[in-house]
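Ticket #4471: structure output looks truncated?

Reporter: J.K.
Steps to reproduce: submitted the chain below (845 residues) through the standard prediction queue, then opened the result file.
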Amino acid sequence: MANKEDYQSRDITFPDQKIVEINLEHEMENAYIEYAMSVIVGRALPDVRDGLKPVHRRILYSMYESGLTSDKPFKKSATCVGDVLGKYHPHGDASVYDAMVRLAQDFSMRYPLVDGHGNFGSVDGDPPAAYRYTEARMSKMCNEMLRDIDKDTVDWDPNFDESLKEPRVLPSRFPNLLVNGSSGIAVGMTTNIPPHNLREVIDATICVLDNEHATLDDLMEHIKGPDFPTRGVIMGRAGIRAAYATGKGHIKVRARTEMEEFGNGRTRIIVTELPYQVNKSRLVENIADQVKDKRLEGISGLRDESDGKKGMRIVIELKKDANPQVTLNRLFAQTQMQTTFGVILLALVNNQKQPKILTLRQILDEYIAFQEEVLTRRTQYDLKKAQERAHLLRGLLIAQDNIDEVIRIIRSSYDDAKEKLMERFGLDDVQAQAILDMRLKALQGLDREKLQAEFDELQARIAYYNQLLSDETMLRGVLKEELIQIRDKYGDERRTEIGFAEDDLDIEDLIVEEQCVFTMTANGYIKRTSASEYAAQGKGGMGKKGMATREEDYVNTVFTASTHDWILFFTDKGRVFRKKGYQIAEAGRTARGTNIVNVLQVDGDERVTEMIHTRDLTAQDRYLVMMTRNGTVKRIAMDALRNLRNNGLRVITLEDGDELITVRETDGTRNILIATHDGQAICFAETDVRVMGRTAVGVRGIRLKEGDYVVGAARATPGKAVLSITQNGYGKRTAVEEYRHTRRGGLGIRNYMVTDKTGPVVGIKVVDGSEDIIVVTQSGTLIRTDVDGIRLAGRSTQGVIVMRFKEEGDQVIALALADKAPEEAADTDTSTDVENSVEAVEVQE
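Returned output as attached by the reporter:
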């Protein structure tokens, strides 16, 4: 292989060689910019004036040039495609035909510009027939796109081989960019302009013509929003307003549906309209796949009954026990029965030189300025033609007044007749030539009255044209009149309905609201189960199996909340996370659940020690009172947690060896009761603890004896009772009034007579007797019993047996309150293993 010196020693020369050194980076940058601009201007983006891309403009002009107007017979599409390729657009025939097909599809264009005859595709995604089979011509609306193009109203550019001229833009006598919309992907930019109703757009244009200070609110009184050819329902106006005000916005479009009753009280959903650009057959297929995969539940049948006469009709039959509204909301959320149309009002302005994102008002202003130019150039053209004709008529009138002499001069002169006529009657070359070009018989038959009438009419028109060119208000009046004519001729009613903002789909609409039991094990497995699975038993029952756990694991936290609540997770390290209840995987009564590390971003040695539920994190005058194992108490405002991150938020700074065990929600006026493992308790006003910042340490809540620790805290509400449950299954209720108020930080008073028989206190709850208590043991057994069945007793008593254990050595480790449930006989079911992964649903209290 040759080395570097060999290459450098070679002297390669060519005749007239010129070597230019350039910076490669600079050259590539310039080349790419040129390529990008070529794509932007020449292919991908529409012009703000006529709303067309080059290929569409060339198709329509080629059809116009070939005489394929709406009043002429159809011709093969291949004829049009061939003309466009050969004259103006030297690219693939498929791209030209596809563009022409779209112009003819009434489900793609709000007002089709091509009248197609034959198979031009369908909303099911069926492809059009080949161009040798279909026929096409301009639609009636398209006539307005090219009206006055022969009157020098637009600029012209040479075609690709400079053998012909093509229009740089079409006159477009209606605002086609808004009326039919456009979409395209250029280099580094995208446009996505939705179609609108012709009548509304023209009314808004007239509004700007009448009031140059018209605001967006003024325009939106006329333009309600996009008007899609496939109809549908737009959900809310916020996205529409954002798009019109800034040029960008997101619009939710939903299928139109109705409910029908059939069979034995069953319901079916009928879909009659789809969102714009949704493929019907793919939608039906996707729904069927989701039903098969059990991602969509409650659907028993699905079929497409659409036809040409009845229109669109997709039938979705529901199971007898299915909730129709929940199923419909799932369809909206999980299929293209609801889509989001991302509006980007990007178009070429400044004579195709600059791509720019425009507001609604800017689009209308650009269009009005263009139409004023079109009308001005058309008037100038008409004025010029009128003046030329009037000039000729003036010469003909002179000839008519002197017809005998004119005929004599023509007959007597051969080579100099023109000069003699010019000299004799003061005519110019054009007038004299016009007289000479007339046959003698026609010259003799001139009717002076007709000539004079035409001349007078031309003089009036010339005066009108001159006035029009000198009066901008008058010019705008003509533009307004012509727009009104187009509106009245082609305008129709709106197809797409604008729904109210409150109808926007919320994720919580997907889940039937119900009370659930949320359970977590010591090893961090969490699940939620419908509270209805735990039917009430009498006091002293054996319970029913609540969770299948491993030998080294046991349930340590259980509470009830709605599927629509926020669940706040507080960890032993003083951090808080939040999830909606539906984000906790649902599992059966005997299932183990999902490991918390798959739900929250907790550290490996971090445990969730408290979970509370709330409906609103931004509520005013709501507080969280936190209690640590070592007796420290802290109070923070609820809205301090409104900006929680996925990686959690620190809510308390803990001392070494301490951990957060309990959190309670308050309203700022409550009394707080703290209970300990050895049976002590203290009750004080929460206002004794000032509101602190998230990272504060807190203050002392109760002074603990050696070996004792806090097991729980509650809101001490007068008229209620303190329910205490011990490790060996004993419990009692004690009136709140028996706990005298003291200042925080003391040793407190006796709460429970703890003995070897009762075991230490596991937890407390403040109850009013209308609840059920769910008691959980270390082995995973749960019992649900009526709180009212546990007798009232004094603070220094041992209580009664609340739960008997099936297994020797078992003990109570957690308790929770639930709504009262109907009683049933004791259930001694044994547990079975079930899957841990369950479809997620949404939460509420």
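Triage note (M.O.): checked the attachment and the full token line is present. The domain at 511-819 is CATH 2.120.10.90 (Neuraminidase).
Status: closed, working as intended.
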